[in-house]
């Protein structure tokens, strides 16, 4: 069984999967509940988070008939940071093995971090053997010097411990952490997009998580502190509405581009201070939403430029996450970023998947795919010291796990 729990700002989703007779992953358990105690991807109430995780876990257990004791957990929030590092291992003129790859990765991760940060992922970008760069699969090659270029994701240790304590209180042990954008990328980016150069932008309730893929591997990752809840807050304040009402009309009538709307289209709503409903033009709602959407993608643009890879993204940006469902947001992204834009969601699912064919569940689905592949990796010699190393075969599963190598 493979279990992933996506602990988001607006929802907690637990998925249970297993391999069917056709050796394809099937979803057999789903538990989706409203989130509690999370804000901008971070814990603000440990009791609330624990209750929501437990409720989600219980639902997934009932639908799957499987007792959940451990899971992979999604990770987001402003405490996330990333950097790139290099490592080297001497091979002494023999055939390169998995242990040599592990030693090179150990060297890449031997950087000094602040006392309050921990490594979450150490992801190999490419390898160099005796000066020959751009190598994806060094195992089996002959050489004297093996180098690795790695992307390292770190998290605030306090934030991580607090979230882990919430998960444990809900009766679940943490098998590992997966950055939300990296989990999503595994199920929404095509192989061509990863190779050519693309950005995945997972827009959730509290944050937008981005990961830049070039030459098949992640080169940069970051968390943008703007998400769907910010849009809801703007609507509530701008139109003087209760928060719950603002959330409802965002889903029913929301749009990010006023210029695309009929100026005469209206909907009924009851603001604060009114005893009866009033008619509000949909254009007025969009005029509240548009500036925040533009701000979001302006921050994404700044992060892309900060990475130094802004000229290496011909495949553009792929939007996913629940907020990417907002009409007009893809067009705003294109206007601000001046890149090709498409929206994506998990595909090729089997089992209990009626609700999961949505951008809102990209991270959740990515987690159980990763859990499956991580379990497969444990059967290989590449698993050393708790770190699953890549098999470097041409299979899709090995390619996926190579992209998501955790620390």
Write structural notes for this entry.
The chain is of the alpha+beta class. Helix content is 34%, strand content 32%. It has a 5-stranded mixed beta sheet, sandwiched between helices. It has a 5-stranded mixed beta sheet with strand order 14-13-12-17-18, sandwiched between helices. Strands 7-10-8-9 form a 4-stranded antiparallel beta sheet. A hairpin with a 2-residue loop joins strand 8 and strand 9 (132-135).
Oligomer: single chain
How many β strands by DSSP? 20
Instruction: Report the biggest beta sheet as strand number plus sense, adding barrel if it closes.
Output: 5 strands, mixed
Cα(first) to Cα(last) distance is: 22 Å
What brief labels describe this structure?
407 residues; Dna Ligase, domain 1; five-stranded mixed β-sheet; 11 helices; 34% helix; globular
Describe what is shown at a glance.
By secondary structure, this protein is α+β, with helices and mostly antiparallel strands.
Record the SSE blueprint.
Layout: E1 2-7, E2 11-19, E3 25-34, E4 38-39, E5 42-43, H1 46-64, E6 70-75, E7 81-95, H2 98-108, E8 117-129, E9 132-135, E10 142-156, H3 157-169, E11 173-179, H4 180-188, H5 191-196, E12 198-203, E13 208-214, E14 217-224, H6 228-238, H7 243-253, E15 266-269, E16 278-281, H8 282-307, E17 317-320, H9 329-337, E18 341-343, H10 362-377, E19 383-384, E20 387-388, H11 396-403
Parallel strand pairs: 1-6, 6-11, 12-17, 17-18
Antiparallel strand pairs: 1-2, 2-3, 4-5, 7-10, 8-9, 8-10, 12-13, 13-14, 15-16, 19-20
Helix pairs in contact: 1-3, 4-10, 6-7, 6-8, 8-9, 10-11
């Amino acid at each position: 069984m493979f279990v992933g729990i996506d602990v988001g700002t607006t929802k907690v989703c637990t998925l249970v999967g297993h391999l069917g007779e056709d050796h394809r992953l099937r979803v057999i358990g789903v538990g989706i509940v409203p989130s509690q105690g999370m804000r901008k991807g971070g814990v603000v109430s440990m009791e609330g988070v624990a209750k929501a995780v437990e409720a989600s876990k219980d639902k997934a257990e009932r639908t799957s008939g499987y007792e959940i004791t451990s899971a992979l957990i999604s990770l987001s929030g402003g405490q996330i940071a990333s950097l790139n590092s290099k490592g080297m291992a001497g091979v002494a003129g023999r055939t390169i093995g998995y242990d040599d790859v592990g030693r090179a990765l150990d060297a890449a991760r031997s950087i000094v971090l602040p006392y309050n940060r921990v490594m979450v992922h150490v992801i190999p970008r490419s390898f160099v053997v005796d000066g020959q760069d751009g190598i994806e699969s060094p195992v089996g090659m002959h050489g004297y010097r093996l180098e690795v270029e790695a992307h390292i994701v770190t998290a605030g240790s306090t934030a991580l411990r607090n979230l882990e304590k919430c998960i444990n209180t809900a009766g679940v042990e943490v098998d590992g952490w997966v950055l939300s954008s990296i989990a999503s990328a595994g199920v929404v980016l095509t192989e061509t997009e990863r190779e050519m150069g693309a950005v995945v932008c997972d827009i959730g309730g509290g944050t937008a998580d981005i990961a830049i893929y070039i030459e098949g591997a992640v080169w940069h990752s970051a968390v943008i502190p703007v998400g769907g809840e910010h849009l809801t807050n703007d609507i509530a304040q701008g139109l003087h509405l209760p928060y719950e009402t603002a959330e409802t009309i965002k889903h029913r009538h929301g749009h990010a581009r006023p210029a695309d709307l009929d100026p005469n289209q209206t909907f009924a709503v009851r603001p604060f201070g009114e005893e009866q409903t009033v008619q509000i033009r949909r254009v007025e709602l969009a005029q509240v939403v548009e500036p925040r959407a533009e701000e979001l993608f302006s921050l994404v643009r700044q992060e892309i430029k900060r990475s130094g890879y802004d000229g290496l993204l011909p495949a553009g940006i792929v939007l996913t996450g629940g907020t990417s469902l907002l009409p007009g947001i893809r067009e705003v992204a294109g206007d601000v970023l001046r890149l090709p834009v498409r929206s994506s969601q998990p595909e090729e699912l089997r089992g209990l998947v009626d609700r999961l064919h949505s951008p809102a569940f990209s991270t959740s689905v990515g987690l159980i795919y990763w859990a499956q592949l991580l379990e497969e990796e444990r059967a290989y010699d590449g698993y050393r010291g708790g770190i699953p190393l890549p098999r470097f075969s041409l299979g899709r599963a090995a390619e996926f796990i190579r992209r998501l190598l955790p620390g």
